[in-house]
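Example 9 (inverse folding). The structure is encoded as follows.
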């Protein structure tokens, strides 16, 4: 019994995934064709276009939670990973990390509006030549 299950899973799992993808694509197509043409005046789509929209949304917005780390889009996971990494640092390590980021990226060294102050203090002739 157990051996037949393990042998059959290589056959049934891909078929199950394909069936779920087909069902979801059909639902997306029906929702699109029954709602959006009347609401925002777009054309109807085919089954394959609906499948493409669904796959594109999954790529852009993520495939859901993985192992308790949280789901979402890849940029959301990177932000969460950075927050976890910073939370695990001591205050000395955090300060050293901030100094390294300042030297690499240039943020934090000068204020964001320093160029505005220099522009206000510049003589009129320099302002006219820079424009």
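The amino acid assigned to each position is listed next.
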């Amino acid at each position: 019994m157990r051996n037949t299950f393990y042998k059959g899973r290589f056959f049934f799992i891909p078929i199950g995934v394909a069936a779920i993808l087909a069902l979801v694509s059909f639902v997306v197509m029906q929702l699109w064709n029954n709602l959006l043409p009347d609401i925002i005046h777009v054309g109807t789509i085919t089954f394959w276009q609906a499948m493409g929209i669904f796959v594109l949304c999954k790529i852009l917005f993520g495939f859901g939670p993985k192992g308790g780390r949280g789901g979402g889009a890849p940029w959301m996971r990177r932000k969460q990973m950075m927050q976890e990494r910073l939370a695990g640092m001591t205050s000395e390590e955090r300060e050293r990390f901030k100094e390294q980021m300042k030297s690499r990226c240039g943020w934090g060294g000068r204020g964001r509006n320093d160029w505005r102050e220099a522009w206000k203090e510049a003589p009129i002739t320099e302002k006219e030549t820079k424009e």
